[in-house]
Amino acid sequence: MPLDIYHYMSDLRNMNEKRVWSMLSEYIDNNDMTGICLCPICVVDIAAITLNSIPPHYQTEENLSVAAERVSDVEIYKQIKKAVAVVARRPHH
Ligand SMILES: [Zn+2]
């Protein structure tokens, strides 16, 4: 395998990252977040915990238009809720 294949790795994207960011932003806007720290460290922790709770979905940028959603929005929402509870209990700072 040619070593320059690594160059093409930069075209790989975990399609779930965008979905989690968008759903997390919506979650924060539409839920009572009283008592939950929303500093960048905690919000990124919530996103990281959520992403680690669902299978990754890598694709090349070329194939963006044919992206099939392998994890449902309901499942992502459920994992965001759990991640918020984890970070609220034990903030990383
Ligand atoms: Zn915080």
Features:
binds zinc ion; 4 helices; 6% strand; elongated; 93 residues; mainly alpha; two-stranded antiparallel sheet
Descriptive account of the structure:
There is one protein chain. With about 90 residues, this protein is mostly helical. It has one domain. The chain has four helices and two strands; from the N terminus they run αβααβα. A two-stranded antiparallel sheet has the order 1-2. The protein is elongated, with a radius of gyration of 16 Å. Zinc ion binds next to helix 3.
Summarize the structure.
This protein is mainly alpha-helical and 93 residues long. It has a two-stranded antiparallel sheet. Bound molecules: zinc ion.
Helix-and-strand structural type? mainly alpha
What do the pLDDT scores average to? 89
Count the beta strands: 2
Strand content: 5-15%
Helix content: 55-70%
Apparent shape = elongated
CA-CA gap between termini:
44 Å
Question: What is the count of helical runs?
Answer: 4
Rounded to an integer, what's the Rg over CA atoms? 16 Å
Major sheet strand order: 1-2
Task: Compile the SSE list and pairings.
Blueprint lengths: L4 H5 L2 E3 H16 L9 H14 L4 E3 L12 H17 L4
The structure holds zinc ion.
